[in-house]
């Protein structure tokens, strides 16, 4: 165990560091930035949480004795009426959800096309660019549909983009420097989205309740069996959340373009 007592660590950078079980007491975290950080089981007592912006997966979060997770979900469902469709329980529900994904993304892409193409490679607040977001969704489809559900051990395209914190994995490309055109990435997206369309169109309630066969090859997800519904829910969540990120950042880019 390493102890830092009375040390000045302002401006320090922690990346791929294991701080599980660490204890912070009488410490100043003002202005800290946390991205891709696992905080399961964190306990905070006597904290001052003011002007804080949190965006992530929130469940069983109790603030001053109140579980705020259900309150957040209810408010998000109110703001985005289509959001509830992203939690289907039947094959027909997944088809309806994918109809919604296709419709919403069509509008977002049309919005992006009105911008200077160079802006679509720009990061907003350190997040992925619009093009990188599309590339990541290609990776998500390859991982959870083409690999996990359809059994292709290495479905990766060179333009696919894993999440930044993913450990280096043999055979999976990770080219952050690539700057493909919007049209080339959209061609790739259309191919992957059509794959999902074929899967959900052929889905039955029986197959939805089944499990995938393990793919015995290095990659992501790991060689294991997964509930089919879980794989498709992951894809829906990726599509939903990343489109919201894209819409948020497009608003900033539009201001720059003007």
UniProtKB/TrEMBL annotation:
Gene3D superfamilies named in the record = dinb family like domain, E3 ubiquitin-protein ligase SopA
DinB-like domain mapped to chain residues: 102-245
The name on file for this protein is DinB family protein
The source organism is Polymorphospora lycopeni
């Amino acid at each position: 165990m390493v102890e830092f007592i009375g040390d000045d660590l302002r401006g320090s950078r922690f990346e791929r560091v294991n701080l599980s079980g660490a204890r912070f007491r009488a410490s100043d975290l003002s202005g800290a930035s946390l991205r891709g950080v696992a905080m399961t089981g964190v306990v905070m007592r006597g904290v001052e949480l003011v002007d804080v912006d949190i965006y992530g997966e929130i469940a069983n979060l109790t603030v001053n004795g109140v579980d705020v997770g259900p309150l957040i979900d209810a408010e998000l469902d109110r703001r985005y009426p289509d959001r509830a469709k992203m939690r289907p329980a039947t094959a027909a529900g997944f088809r309806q959800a994918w109809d919604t994904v296709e419709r919403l993304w069509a509008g977002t892409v049309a919005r992006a096309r009105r911008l200077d193409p160079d802006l679509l490679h720009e990061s907003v607040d350190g997040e992925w660019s619009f093009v990188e977001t599309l590339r990541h969704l290609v990776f998500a489809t390859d991982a959870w549909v083409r690999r996990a559900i359809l059994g292709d051990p290495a479905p990766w395209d060179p333009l696919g983009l894993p999440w930044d914190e993913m450990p280096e994995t043999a055979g999976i490309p990770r080219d952050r420097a690539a700057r493909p055109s919007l049209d080339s990435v959209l061609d790739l997206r259309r191919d992957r989205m059509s794959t999902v369309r074929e899967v959900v169109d052929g889905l039955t309630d029986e197959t939805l309740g089944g499990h995938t066969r393990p793919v015995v090859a290095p990659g992501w997800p790991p060689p294991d069996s997964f509930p089919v519904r879980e794989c498709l829910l992951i894809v829906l969540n990726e599509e939903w959340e990343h489109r919201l990120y894209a819409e948020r950042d497009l608003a900033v880019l539009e201001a720059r373009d003007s």
